[in-house]
Amino acid sequence: MATRITNKNLSISSKNWMREHLDDHYVHLAQKEGYRARAAYKLLEINEKTQLLKKGMTVVDLGSAPGSWSQVAGKIVGENGILIASDILPMDRLENVTFIQGDFREESVFAQLMQEVGNRSVDVVLSDMAPNTTGHKAVDQPRMVYLCELAVDFALKVLPEGGSLIMKVFQGEGTAQLRSQMQPQFAKVRSIKPAASRARSKEMFWVATK
Fold this sequence. Notes:
CATH class: Alpha Beta
Order of helices and strands: HHHEHEEHEHEHEE
Number of strands: 7
CATH superfamily: Vaccinia Virus protein VP39
Largest sheet: 7 strands, mixed
Radius of gyration: 17 Å
Distance between the termini: 48 Å
Strand order of the largest sheet: 3-2-1-4-5-7-6
Number of domains: 1
Number of helices: 7
């Protein structure tokens, strides 16, 4: 049975989004299976296709809150692996996940991340980061490209040869240039559009391996 939207203060677009969200298969599935957000199924499908995340690995999750990607990756790497999550926003505790709140661009936060990594190599960097969107492409797209550039810069600092970056991007102005900049630095850059990513969404996920 469809859920009624009763808040009269919502705009038509907000009501449509809310209705779509409440009727969303992956939203219901996330609630049923205990994931914090539907985004978990995006990473699950990406990993099913790439098999990059494995038991015992060391993984860093950038922009991790509310934690659905950390949930997925933490379960995969298991007790013998290391999952280090970081976000400016707070995140509730997760099993097999070490959370560091702060901006990873800051030297002190980066140092904390690397202290948790220790003498192990980082196998995979995850980035599901996205800006708070305004609905204006001229504002949102440059902000997203900037976040992607930060994720790439971080990955290049910490990944050894053979390490991988899984990163969300918004298709649009600046992404072709970003990809061309990445290609000399990574052996391969692959695009994946998971089923859990809404068809009308401009988001895409890049999988890049050094």
